[in-house]
């Protein structure tokens, strides 16, 4: 598969991969060099059980908590505690981060993901958290490179894209589309694994789309053995930016 950012391959182990949407053929689970083959993980990709399993890993929850805390620590977030954010989460997975925004989630919020199993669990969270009147979870076609986003021009106060970029064949094009979906002055929050992108690459994606980086955080997370991958430490970059007003 081709990637716009150089040097990245999917052959390294992803400690907590949720699978992804590329269409691979059947796989053996490991490539010849012992690295993880995503084809096998993808066999389970649309499985609801698989999505639920990701939620039993406490370290995964710790990552979601760290993401939420990072946003909540921003001055603009705490300045007006009753302000709500119409939010898009592209590659929302089980919808934890989106639903975790609770009362701060604005009407018309959307979670998009190609995996039916992820969406089923995300919709359950919306029901449990009483958020069905403000958020919908919809399916996207991974082959369309985010074309579905074009109907949302200038709509969102906040766009989330968490641990998804390394799954995409055209990350740059998708970041551009995500930024188009932002309203003027809207915020974009991207989280990515250090073995998928460098911090410089992430910042260049923002810069290329004319976005000012307003905050960043680098954090390590210990990931236990999961889904056939060995235990690992995952370094994650968290980058927040704002679209010009
Ligand atoms: C590592 S998980 C992260 C999920 C969620 N953002 C989180 O942090 O828990 C990667 C997600 O990317 C989604 N994904 C894979 N390919 C995609 C694509 N082409 N477009 C959008 N999302 C994709 C997967 O379905 C999966 O839910």
Descriptive overview:
The chain has 245 residues and is α/β, with parallel strands linked by helices. The protein is 29% helix and 23% strand. It contains 8 helices and 7 strands; from the N terminus they run ααααβαβαββαβαββ. It has helices at residues 38-43, 48-54, 58-72, 75-79, 96-100, 116-128, 171-181, 199-208, and strands spanning 87-90, 109-113, 135-139, 156-162, 182-193, 212-223, 232-242. A 7-stranded mixed sheet has the order 3-2-1-4-5-7-6. The radius of gyration is 17 Å and the shape is globular. The termini are far apart. Bound molecules: S-adenosylmethionine. S-adenosylmethionine is lined by residues 17-18, 20-21, 90-93, 96, 113-115, 118, 140, 142, 162-164, 167-168.
Number of helices: 8
Poorly predicted runs of 5 or more residues: 1-44
Mean pLDDT: 84
Helix content: 25-40%
How far is the N terminus from the C terminus?
37 Å
Bound small molecules, by name, code or SMILES, are: S-adenosylmethionine
What would the principal axes of the Cα set say about the shape?
globular
Instruction: Count every beta strand, where a strand is a DSSP E run of 2 or more residues.
Output: 7
From the alpha-carbon coordinates, what is the Rg to the nearest angstrom? 17 Å
Percent of residues in β-strands: 15-25%
Order of helices and strands: HHHHEHEHEEHEHEE
Strand order of the largest sheet: 3-2-1-4-5-7-6
The largest sheet is: 7 strands, mixed
Give the class from helix and strand content and strand pairing: alpha/beta
């Amino acid at each position: 598969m081709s990637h716009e950012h150089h040097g990245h391959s999917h052959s390294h182990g992803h400690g907590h991969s949720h699978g992804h949407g590329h269409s691979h053929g059947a796989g053996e689970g490991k490539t010849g060099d012992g690295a993880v083959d995503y084809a096998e993980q993808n066999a389970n990709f649309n499985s609801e059980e698989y999505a639920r399993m990701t939620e039993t890993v406490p370290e995964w929850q710790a990552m979601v908590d760290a993401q939420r805390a990072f946003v909540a620590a921003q001055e603009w977030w705490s300045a007006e505690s009753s302000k709500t954010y119409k939010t898009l989460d592209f590659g929302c997975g089980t919808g934890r981060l989106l639903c975790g925004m609770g009362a701060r989630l604005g009407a018309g919020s959307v979670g998009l993901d190609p995996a039916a199993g992820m969406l089923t669990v995300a919709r359950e969270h919306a029901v449990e958290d009483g958020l069905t009147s403000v958020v919908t979870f919809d399916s996207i076609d991974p082959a369309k490179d985010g074309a579905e986003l074009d109907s949302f021009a200038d709509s969102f106060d906040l766009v989330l894209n968490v641990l998804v970029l390394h799954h995409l064949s055209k990350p740059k094009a998708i970041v551009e589309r995500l930024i188009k979906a932002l309203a003027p002055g809207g915020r974009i929050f991207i989280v990515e694994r250090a073995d998928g992108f460098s911090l410089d690459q992430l910042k260049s994606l923002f810069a290329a789309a004319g976005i000012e980086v307003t905050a960043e955080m680098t954090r390590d997370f210990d990931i236990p053995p999961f889904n056939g991958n060995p235990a690992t430490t995952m370094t994650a970059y968290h980058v927040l930016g704002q679209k010009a007003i």
